[in-house]
C-alpha cells in the first residue's frame, strides 16, 4: 500500500524478477484493469442470459466463456508486463506480422457472421478477429520506426510508419471495418505527434482522412447507412441505438435495479457493443461514472509515467497504447449515447468477446511493461552515448 501511495522504486541490479516486477509496476493501473474485468463479469451475468436462452444454451454459458478468456487475458497481461522494452518491441513486430498475414487472408478464409463485414476467422469452437491483435503490434512497429528515425544516420522511420499505417487503414476499410481503421489512424497520429511531427503535416493527414471518409460515404452503402442513421434527428426506437438510448434514460442516476433491466432482451449486441447501456439501465449513472473513472485512471497514470521516460521507443509506444486503449472505450460509449456513428467496437475488458479481451490483455501487458519504473541514468551520460 505504501508503494501505491508514494510510487514504486527503481529496479536494482541483481533483484529477483518477481520482486523487481512488483516494485516497479504501476499497481493502480493493474487494480483498475482488474476492476474493469470484474465489472464486465457482473454485467455479463445480466446481458448474456437472453442470448444464451435464444441459442438454447445454459443461462451462464457466455459468462463462463468470458471468465475463461478473461483469465487467459490476465495471465498473458501479467507475463508480458514482466518483459523489457526490447522484448516488447520484438513481440510487437512478430505479432504484427502474424496478424497482418491473417488480415490479408480474410477475403479467402474469413466470414462475416451475417453482419456485412468480413472480419473474423471461424475455427469452429471459437472465432478470431485479427484486427484486434493487429493494433498492439502496429503500435510497437511504428514506434520502433519512429524511434529509429531519431538516431544519427537512422532510416526514414517516420515515412515507413506512414506507409504501414496507410496500408493497414486501407485493408481495414475494405473489410469494411471503419471503426478499427479510424482507431489505427488515430494511434499513428498520436505517436507521430509525440515523435516530433510538424503540426501542418498532421493537419494534412487529418484532411486526407476526411477526404477518405467522404469517398467512403459515396462508395460504401454500409458506411453511408451508418452515417445517415447518425445524422437523422429522429431515432427509430426499434433500432439498437433507439433501445440503448431509451435504456440509458430509464436508468437514471441509481438504475432500475440488478436484473430488472429490459434492454438486454431487445438488443442483440447487449453483451458486446452496447454493454454500457445495460450498465446504465440496471446500475445507473453511478456505474457508468465508475467505469469512466477506471479508464481515465489507466490512461492518465500511464501518460504521466511516460513523461519521465527518456527512451524514444518506450515513450512513443507507451503513448500510442494508452491513447488507443482510452479512445476505444470512448468510441464504444460515444456510440451508445449517440455522440458517434455506430462502429461495432467493444468496450475493453468489459464487453464479451474472446479476441477483444485477449488482445486487450496483450496491449495492457505491453503498456504496463513500458510504464514500469526504470533507472533513467544521468542526462550527460545519455548525451555522450548519442554522439
From TrEMBL:
Keywords: Cell cycle, Cell division, Cell membrane, Cell shape, Cell wall biogenesis/degradation, Glycosyltransferase, Membrane, Peptidoglycan synthesis, Transferase, Transmembrane, Transmembrane helix
E.C. number(s) listed in UniProt: 2.4.99.28
Chief place where the protein resides: membrane
Catalytic class of the enzyme: transferase
Superkingdom in the source lineage: Bacteria
Transmembrane segments: 28-47, 67-84, 91-110, 159-178, 190-217, 283-304, 316-337, 349-370
Lyase keyword on record: no
Pfam families linked: FTSW_RODA_SPOVE
Record membrane topology: Multi-pass membrane protein
Compartments, as annotated in UniProt: Cell membrane
Catalytic activity of the protein: [GlcNAc-(1->4)-Mur2Ac(oyl-L-Ala-gamma-D-Glu-L-Lys-D-Ala-D-Ala)](n)-di-trans,octa-cis-undecaprenyl diphosphate + beta-D-GlcNAc-(1->4)-Mur2Ac(oyl-L-Ala-gamma-D-Glu-L-Lys-D-Ala-D-Ala)-di-trans,octa-cis-undecaprenyl diphosphate = [GlcNAc-(1->4)-Mur2Ac(oyl-L-Ala-gamma-D-Glu-L-Lys-D-Ala-D-Ala)](n+1)-di-trans,octa-cis-undecaprenyl diphosphate + di-trans,octa-cis-undecaprenyl diphosphate + H(+)
InterPro entries in the record: FtsW, FtsW/RodA
Pathway: Cell wall biogenesis; peptidoglycan biosynthesis
Family membership: Belongs to the SEDS family. FtsW subfamily.
Protein name: Probable peptidoglycan glycosyltransferase FtsW
Annotated organism of origin: Paracoccus maritimus
Amino acid at each position: 500500500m505504501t508503494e501505491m501511495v508514494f510510487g514504486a522504486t527503481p529496479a536494482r541490479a541483481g533483484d529477483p524478477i518477481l520482486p523487481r516486477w512488483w516494485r516497479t509496476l504501476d499497481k493502480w493501473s493493474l487494480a483498475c484493469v482488474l476492476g474493469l474485468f470484474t465489472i464486465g463479469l457482473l454485467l455479463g451475468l445480466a446481458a448474456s442470459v437472453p442470448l444464451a436462452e435464444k441459442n438454447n444454451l445454459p443461462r451462464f454459458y457466455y459468462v463462463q466463456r468470458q471468465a475463461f478468456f478473461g483469465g487467459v487475458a490476465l495471465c498473458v497481461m501479467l507475463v508480458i508486463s514482466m518483459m523489457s522494452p526490447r522484448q516488447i518491441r520484438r513481440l510487437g513486430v512478430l505479432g504484427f506480422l502474424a496478424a497482418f498475414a491473417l488480415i490479408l487472408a480474410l477475403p479467402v478464409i474469413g466470414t462475416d457472421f451475417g453482419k456485412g463485414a468480413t472480419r473474423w476467422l471461424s475455427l469452429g469452437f471459437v472465432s478470431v478477429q485479427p484486427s484486434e491483435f493487429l493494433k498492439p503490434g502496429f503500435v510497437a512497429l511504428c514506434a520502433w520506426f519512429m524511434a529509429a528515425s531519431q538516431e544519427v544516420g537512422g532510416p526514414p522511420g517516420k515515412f515507413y510508419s506512414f506507409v504501414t499505417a496507410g496500408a493497414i487503414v486501407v485493408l481495414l476499410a475494405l473489410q469494411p471495418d471503419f471503426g478499427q481503421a479510424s482507431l489505427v489512424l488515430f494511434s499513428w497520429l498520436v505517436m507521430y505527434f509525440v515523435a516530433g511531427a510538424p503540426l501542418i503535416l498532421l493537419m494534412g493527414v487529418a484532411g486526407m482522412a476526411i477526404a477518405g471518409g467522404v469517398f467512403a460515404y459515396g462508395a460504401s452503402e454500409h458506411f453511408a447507412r451508418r452515417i445517415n442513421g447518425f445524422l437523422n434527428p429522429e431515432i427509430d426506437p426499434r433500432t439498437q441505438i433507439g433501445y440503448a438510448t431509451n435504456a440509458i434514460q430509464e436508468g437514471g442516476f441509481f438504475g432500475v435495479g440488478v436484473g430488472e433491466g429490459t434492454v438486454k432482451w431487445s438488443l442483440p449486441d447487449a453483451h458486446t457493443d452496447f454493454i454500457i447501456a445495460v450498465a446504465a439501465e440496471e446500475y445507473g449513472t453511478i456505474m457508468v461514472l465508475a467505469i469512466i473513472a477506471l479508464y481515465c485512471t489507466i490512461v492518465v497514470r500511464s501518460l504521466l509515467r511516460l513523461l519521465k521516460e527518456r527512451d524514444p521507443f518506450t515513450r512513443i509506444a507507451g503513448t500510442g497504447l494508452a491513447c488507443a486503449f482510452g479512445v476505444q472505450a470512448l468510441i464504444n460509449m460515444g456510440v451508445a449515447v449517440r455522440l458517434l456513428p455506430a462502429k461495432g467496437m467493444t468496450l475493453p475488458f468489459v464487453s464479451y468477446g474472446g479476441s477483444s479481451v485477449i488482445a486487450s490483455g496483450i496491449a495492457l501487458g505491453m503498456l504496463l511493461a513500458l510504464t514500469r519504473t526504470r533507472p533513467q541514468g544521468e542526462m550527460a551520460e545519455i548525451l555522450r552515448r548519442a554522439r
